[in-house]
Specification:
- The complex is a heterodimer of chains A (about 550) and B (about 350).
- With about 550 residues, chain A is an alpha+beta fold.
- Chain A is built from 19 helices and 21 strands.
- In chain A, strands 16, 17, 18, 19, 20 and 21 form a 6-stranded mixed β-sheet that branches. In chain A, strands 1-2-5-4-13 form a 5-stranded antiparallel β-sheet.
- In chain A, a hairpin with a 5-residue loop joins β14 and β15.
- Chain B is an alpha/beta fold.
- In chain B, α3 crosses α4 and α7 packs across α8.
- Chain B is globular, with a radius of gyration of 22 Å.
- Classes of the chains: A alpha+beta (about 550), B alpha/beta (about 350).
- At the A-B interface, α1, α2, α5, α6 and α10 of A face α2, α3, α4 and α5 of B.
Chain lengths: ~550, ~350
């Protein structure tokens, strides 16, 4: 993984000095709260319902054990002993005291971490495929490009006061495991005409109040021109994006308003006046960054291990964990383990300091000192020898981290909701907990197969409800918390927005309603058909009926 | 970045003006004022970048609602100056402009680019670098020497030192032509002739230098060592140390290259001065090393540069008032400095050159 050199380290320290200066000017009254707010947001500091919240960047989700241990230290020393992984692969601490923030940032800087641009109207943390460098279908590892974008976008002079936030995701395979079409800009590595790295570029995706699936603006931008092309897109957006209405300020609204073809022309106009020689990534720099992401020194192993096979045969619980939480690795004899942060009755994405330390130990011992955060709010040990999987599982199991539900119905994405968030209309966590209890039966979940259920506590859609196979949106109905259900959304290369099935339901009816929809799927699915494919084939109607028939009958 | 109490009269457009109108205004004017209606509206940054991308060479001044925290962004997007709101304290603007030592992304100006510095040839030590540059630029004129040392590819972080004395205008004029935003340190010793302070203001304004910094003695040390301001009477070396050497060391922190106006003809110690030298690991650059007094005079005259008011009163070299006197006919220019003492240098130019300090 990437390691800071003297320049990266200096910049992070200087950023803390800058922020301390800003905090002092706020304290002395030199800065008004209105002026201070965007500055603190760009340093990851929110004011939530009950306390400040600090959002720490995990660039493209990659961490080492030292960093994970430091997060545990922060959770324990400055917070209530836990943290929350987000859909932007960042981690949030919900209870820090404002006066501790400089110390937290300094402790993080000690392990090459920061909170820069985790909020605010600027370019946010770049995300990627959690299986980058692992997946068998990958054309090229996207992480070096993520790091290049991270550096280029950090404290960008032109793009720090955009109309609204700006999110970029990068993938290196045709299969989209990073939901790039829900991003302001999505980048897919493709093979250019000359055989060199190129990027298929999507623009104008986004969730929130007015969701849009991104549209293709370029089919193959050469790697060397990537930053110039991104600059042209952002410049067009910065000049033309709406600033009169916060709900219409994202690039998706601009692209939809002018049309993708007109927007493309505008980007090309901006591209022409760029000093391209400045924006070309120096080849030596590209090579330097790529060198950090060369594969770890894998052992030459057979495709499977007798001990691993025996353990699967003998231990049904372990075998289930393998079926749901182990992913194929491009290196023979290795696998990637998903550590689910979605135990039954748990808070999706939450992890305690003790658990963080266990994960750090396992990463150090069994996964070349690497652990990843996924946008589904789970963790991944990317490079585990198959013969070590049982040992890893045993340790995870002891610490409550071996829930065998990755990508299954209880692997729920949920925002913090009204329990923490000042924007929320309704709570998300209790609904996710009720749903995980309702669907806790592991056999049932396996029978249902992959189902993505996503819950947001408000229309801002941090819980990705629009693109859940089943989505749940919290709404405020005359002071009561109600929930709207959608089906048919999808975050991947066949991205789609879910369809609202009907009127919103009170909290206690949500989990039974979803259970009925899933039962209906089992009844009507074709042989081997996934839930989302059944929805695509038959539409929302069968599920609408399943959800509302008993309620209507009772009324 | 120049901080203005008030922008000069000129075309003033808000950042919500359509880009074509701004472009037309730029084509017709050599100075533009862009007014921010709210600091959150970042269009002005892109407008400046576009104008510079289209080749606009004129002056760009930012005005309106802007935070000190944005001054660095403004500079890097191509603005030359900011109009402060009436009564604003310039200190945070200066601090925030200099808070980062380097930047990742290319932009206007000559900020040190991380991506370039990483791949600069392995850092030479100052001695080797000075030797190489002396050989390479043996016959270069002062402009070229300055450009050579300020070339971003060399990856140096440079600062100029100026006394704003009798001949200072020449070096500052050259700097204003090559890089007007180069930081220039002026030692505000607290013992200057008031004419020097007036001249510092006049010359800075006239040349459009945007980064002249007054470096002052530490207030606590001053109170402890020189409460009555008369240390110069009995211990001039200690006075120089307190009011010049120590503050300068602080003012130069973070810089690895300093540009001075020293010349060989000034005194015996400087007689063999090279354009480039290494002093305590720092690269010192003396673009005027080989200039004669006549060349200096000619340059000042030809470019109609303002003269220090004391020159016509017989002060050819000007330091603090207690230790500077006018010289008589036949004396060397620097004979008026620390007159009657063995002292010839204050010590700011390093031990290697001034062991007597």
């Amino acid at each position: 993984m990437y390691r800071y050199d003297e320049f990266d380290a200096a910049l992070v320290r200087e950023r803390i000095a800058e922020f301390s200066d800003q905090v002092n000017r706020r304290s002395s009254g030199e800065l008004t709260e209105d002026e201070f707010k965007p500055l603190r947001l760009m340093n990851g500091v929110y004011l939530q319902l009950h306390a400040y919240m600090a959002r720490i960047a995990v660039p493209y989700g990659v961490m080492n054990s030292r960093q994970m241990r430091q997060l545990a230290h922060v959770a324990r020393t400055y917070d209530k002993g836990y943290g929350h992984f987000t859909t932007r692969t960042n981690i949030q601490f919900n209870w820090p005291a404002l006066q501790d923030l400089p110390a937290i940032l300094s402790d993080l800087a000690d392990v090459e971490m920061h909170a820069i641009q985790t909020s605010g109207n600027c370019i946010r943390n770049v995300t990627t495929d959690v299986f980058a460098g692992v997946a068998t279908d990958e054309i090229e590892d996207p992480r070096p490009w993520c790091e290049i974008i991270r550096q280029w976008s950090t404290i960008h002079p032109e793009f720090s006061f955009l109309p609204r936030k700006f999110k970029i995701a990068v993938i290196g395979a045709a299969k989209d495991r990073a939901a790039i079409r829900t991003h302001d800009v999505g980048l897919q590595i493709v093979c250019g005409e000359d055989g060199e790295t190129a990027f298929r570029v999507f623009v104008g995706g986004g969730q929130g109040r007015l969701p849009h699936i991104a549209q293709e603006i370029a089919s193959a931008v050469p790697g060397q021109s990537l930053l110039a092309y991104l600059t042209a897109i952002l410049r067009a957006y910065n000049l033309l994006g709406r600033r009169d209405n916060i709900h219409k300020a994202r690039i998706k609204i601009l692209v939809a308003a002018v049309g993708i073809d007109a927007f493309r022309e505008e980007v090309e106009r901006q591209y022409e006046i760029l000093r391209l020689e400045d924006l070309r990534i120096p080849e030596a720099e590209l090579a330097r960054i790529q060198a950090y992401f060369t594969p770890p020194p894998f052992a030459d192993l057979p495709a499977t291990s007798p001990a691993y096979d025996a353990a699967r045969r003998l231990n049904a619980e372990f075998a289930r964990f393998i079926r749901s939480n182990l992913r194929e690795h491009k290196q023979a004899g290795y696998g990637a383990i998903i550590i689910s942060l979605k135990p039954v009755d748990g808070v999706p994405g939450d992890i305690t300091a003790d658990q963080m330390e266990v994960v750090a130990d396992l990463a150090e011992r069994f996964s070349f000192d690497e652990v990843r955060a996924s946008y589904e709010q789970n963790l991944v040990l990317p490079h585990v020898r198959l013969e070590d999987v049982h040992a890893v599982w045993s340790r995870l199991r002891k610490t409550g981290l071996a829930t065998a539900n990755a990508d299954l119905a209880t692997d729920i994405i949920a925002c913090p909701g009204l329990d923490y968030c000042s924007l929320a209309n309704a709570r998300s966590i209790p609904v996710a907990q009720a749903l995980s209890r309702q669907l806790a039966d592991a056999d049932l979940q396996e029978k249902l197969g992959p189902v993505r259920i996503n819950i947001s506590g408000c229309i801002n859609a941090c819980g990705h409800h629009h693109v859940g196979h089943i989505g749940v949106l919290g709404v405020d109905r005359k002071g009561e918390e109600y929930y709207q259900i959608t089906v048919g959304g999808s975050p991947d290369e066949q991205a789609a927005l879910g369809e609202i099935v009907g009127r919103s339901l009170p909290a206690e009816e949500v989990a039974p309603a979803i259970a009925r929809a899933l039962d209906r799927y089992l009844e009507i699915r074709a042989e081997g058909e996934l839930f989302i494919d059944t929805v695509r084939r038959l539409g929302a109607d069968p599920f609408r009926t399943a959800i509302y028939e008993p309620i209507d009958a009772a009324a | 970045m120049q901080l203005l109490e008030q922008a000069p009269d000129g075309v003033r457009l808000t950042v919500s003006t359509p880009a074509e109108d701004i472009r037309a205004a730029a084509a017709a004017n050599d100075s533009l004022i862009l007014e921010f209606e709210t600091f959150r509206d970042g269009r002005g940054f892109s407008l400046a970048a576009v104008l510079r991308g289209q080749g606009y060479q004129g002056r760009l001044i930012a005005a309106g609602k802007i935070l000190p925290d944005q001054v660095r962004h403004l500079r890097r997007c191509g603005f030359d100056a900011v109009e402060l709101t009436p009564g604003a304290d310039p200190a945070p603007w200066r601090r925030m402009d200099q808070v980062f030592s380097a930047a990742y992304q290319p932009a206007s100006g000559d900020d040190l680019l991380v991506w370039r510095r990483r791949h600069a040839p392995a850092a030479e030590d100052a001695v080797a670098l000075a030797a190489r540059l002396n050989a390479q630029w043996a016959d270069a004129d002062a402009d070229d020497l300055l450009r050579a040392v300020l070339d971003p590819a060399l990856g140096r972080k440079a600062v100029a030192i100026s006394s704003f004395g009798a001949e200072a205008a020449v070096l500052l004029h050259l700097i204003s032509r090559v890089q007007p935003h180069l930081p220039v340190v002026f030692l505000e010793t607290g013992q200057h002739f008031f004419q020097t302070l007036a001249y510092r203001r006049e010359l800075t304004e006239r040349l459009g230098l945007t980064e002249v910094r007054d470096v002052q003695p530490d207030a606590a040390s001053l109170a402890a060592s020189d409460p009555h301001g008369d240390l110069w009477r009995h211990a001039p070396d200690a006075c120089c140390d307190l009011r010049k050497v120590q503050p300068l060391a602080k003012g130069l922190e973070g810089f690895d290259t300093r540009i001075t106006g020293r010349k060989r003809y000034q005194n015996r110690q400087r007689a063999t001065l090279d354009p480039f030298e290494a002093i305590d690991g720092v690269l010192a650059v003396n673009p005027l090393a080989s200039w004669s007094a006549e060349q200096i005079e000619t340059w000042l005259h030809d470019h109609q540069l303002p003269r220090h008011p004391l020159v016509e009163q017989g002060y050819p070299s000007i330091g603090c008032w207690p230790c500077t006197r006018a010289v008589e006919a036949g004396e060397n220019a620097r004979d008026g400095r620390w007159s009657g003492q063995e002292k010839t240098e204050c010590g700011i130019h390093g031990r290697t050159l001034a062991p007597a300090c």
